[in-house]
Every structure is written in structure tokens, then in C-alpha cells.
Amino acid sequence: MLSWSGKDQGIPVDLPTLTVGVPHAHELLAFAAAAASPAPDSDALAAARADLSAAAGEAVMVDAAAVVANFEMMTRLAECTGAVLHNRASAIAGTAVGADSFKRH
Amino acid sequence: MEVTVRPELAAAHDRAWQSLAEAGTWWSARQRRELAETAITAMWAGPDTAVRTREGVPTEAPLAAHRAVAAMASGTPAITREWWESTRDAIGALEYVELVGLVCVVASVTSLRNTLGMAPRELPVASDDGPTKVAPPGLADATLNWVPVAAPADANAAVVQALTAVPAANEMLWSLADVQYIPDAEMVDPRWTRGTLSRVEMELVATRVSFSRECHY
Fold first, then answer.
1. Is residue A92 in some structural domain?
2. Closest residue on chain A to B108 (Cα)
3. Can you state the percent helix, strand and coil of chain B, rounding each to 5?
4. B-contacting residues of A 31-60, CB under 8 Å?
5. Distance in Å from the first CA to the final CA of chain B
6. What's the mean pLDDT in B162-185?
7. pLDDT in tens, A1-45
8. What is the mean pLDDT of residues B56-82?
9. Taking CB atoms and an 8 Å limit, are B209 and A35 in contact across chains?
10. How far apart are the C-alpha atoms of A19 and A30, rounded to whole Å?
């Protein structure tokens, strides 16, 4: 979705280097990995929650949890409705982030 | 751990959670509540545990629907075109689309609570209301999705048109996305922020979750 926005606005977005210069990238990635279903490790999740809150504040942690929730939803939406990428640019972006190695439906 | 959730996010989740025990377009209130319960169990304890409790006992919704939401919520068995066609033949195409929306609500609300360390939430008591059976606007077969969509097909991205065959489910999905991720009107602006996460930080989290969920889309 970010890649589509960047294209629409004429702002280049380099997906493979998303973490470069991103504040709290390590804590955000650890938090998202610990929170993703199924059956997350509750101790790891609690630690990731505390780390992100300490680094960026509780409001950031809560909004990161909301983004996790959104993509727990959107991934199921795509999977269960057989959604496919709608254009070549999106397909290229998917390849760039290694999505081709994900399971095929 | 007590955390403060933005009021508009909390309100959207309250509304979505309540909808799980209200009549839908193709499923009754009792059926939707029962199916939501199965989806919740499947998401966090696996599909076998979720379906086993429904086998051999009277249920409001058919067992095929329970198996469907258990698979959608857990990803097991894998959701393939053959699986979709078989499930559609068992429960109906529009009934299927509504269940995708139901599972999306379950995934959103239970994920947020789990991630924030909040206790699981009880489902509301279901009413006696039956499905509205309001016929959708014109439908069309899509090339970007397996499921039927509101005509004209493929005018928008696959995820945008995915639930349009059941307008109530579609509205609920996007009302959640507006408060969890980015309001629809702001989607084109890569600099948009709610004042907490930047757009790039949101995409970082989104990409990591999608990777864990093995989502090709």
C-alpha cells in the first residue's frame, strides 16, 4: 500500500531498505514478530511490548498493536477471497521484499 | 498492564464486536455468534479444537460453516481455490463472503487485545433476529478475486472489492481499517501520520505481520 501511495505522489519508496533510518525499527520489528498469530509466546510478547513502550512511548506501542490487528485482518481478507495483485508494479514490489518465497494459494 | 486505547479505536472495536452477535445479511444473530466463537477458538487454539466441539452436537449454523470459519481464522487447511469452491458449494457464495467479514472482525479485535495484554472479551448475547437477506447490487465474477464482487468487477484493487458483494460486511471491514491503519482518504499520502507512528513505521509493522502470516498479497 505504501508503494502505491509513493507512486501516486511521485515519492520513491524503497521497500527493501525500509528499516534504514527508521526510528525504533528494531523494537517495532520485534514487537510485530512477537504479536503475529498464531499462539504467540506471551512472555516474548510482554517483553516486546515493554521494549517498544520504553523506546517510543505507550501511544506508539498501542498504535503499532492496531496496525498488527489490521494486518491480521487484511491478510485473512486477501487469503480467503483469493486476492491477487492488480498490476505489474505491485508484483515487482512483492518480489522486492521476498514475497515470492511465501506460500502459494 | 493497563494501556490507554484511542477512543475512536475502542469505539470501532466495540461496534465490530457487537456485530458478531447481531443478524447479518445471510446469517442469523445466533449463527453469527456461534461461528464467531468457533473462529476465536480456531485462531488461538487451532482448527481441530474449534471444530471438535461442534461435531455431533446440535448447532445453529451448519458444520460446513464452522469448518469454513475455523480454516479462515487459522489458515489450516490452506485456503486454496479448490477449498473455496468446495466451501462455496456447501454454504453459498454470499454466505461465504459474509463469513470472511466475520473472521476479519474476530482477527482484528482478538489480535489487538492479545497484543496489548488485555483479557479475552466475552461475546455479546445474540438476539433472535434472522438474516436480512437484502439482495446485493449487481454482482460480477472477478479476475482479481475468487469470490463474486459488486459490479463492475476489477475496477479497484482485489482487497478493496473483496467484500463488496455483502455491503454490510464491507462497511465494517473498512471502518476498522480506518482507525487501525490509515483513513481511506489519507491512503494516497505517504507522509500521513496520526502523530505516533510514521507511515514508514506502520508499513514496517504491516510487512512483518504479513511475513509471519505468509501472505503473498
1. yes
2. A69
3. 55, 0, 45
4. 31-33, 35-40, 45-46, 49, 57-60
5. 34
6. 96
7. 554 555 555 655 554 556 667 888 999 999 999 999 776 689 999
8. 94
9. yes
10. 12
- Look up the pTM and report it: 0.88
Q: Which one-letter amino acid corresponds to residue B7?
A: P
Asked if residue A27 is part of any domain, the answer here is: yes
Mean pLDDT (whole number) for B157-172: 96
B129-to-B17, B33, B38, B58, B125 alpha-carbon distances in Å: 17, 12, 20, 19, 12
Angstroms from B7 CA to nearest CA on chain A: 12
pLDDT at A29: 94
Does B12 touch chain A if contact means CB atoms closer than 8 Å?
A: no
**Backbone φ/ψ region at B214: left (φ over 0), alpha (ψ -120 to 50), beta:** left
Residue of A8, A18, A19, A73 to mutate when probing chain B, most B C-beta within 10 A: A73
A39 phi/psi in degrees, rounded to 5: 40, 65
Chain A residues within an 8 Å CB radius of B6: 62-63, 66
Poorest-pLDDT segment among A16-20, A33-37, B79-83, B161-165: A16-20
User: Counting beta carbons within 10 angstroms of the beta carbon of residue B47, is it exposed (0 to 12), middle (13 to 18) or buried (19 or more)?
Assistant: buried
User: Which CB contacts under 8 angstroms, 24+ apart, belong to B70-73?
Assistant: B70/B38, B70/B39, B70/B41, B70/B42, B71/B42, B71/B47, B72/A76, B72/A79, B72/A80, B72/B39, B72/B99, B72/B100, B72/B103, B73/A76, B73/B38, B73/B39, B73/B40, B73/B42, B73/B43, B73/B47, B73/B103, B73/B106, B73/B107
Contact A99, B216 (CB under 8 A): yes
With CB atoms and an 8 Å threshold, state whether B72 touches A76. yes
Whether B12 has a pLDDT exceeding 70, the answer reads yes
Which pLDDT band, with edges at 50, 70 and 90, does A86 fall under?
Answer: low
Residue A49: domain span? 22-98
A59 within domain boundaries: yes
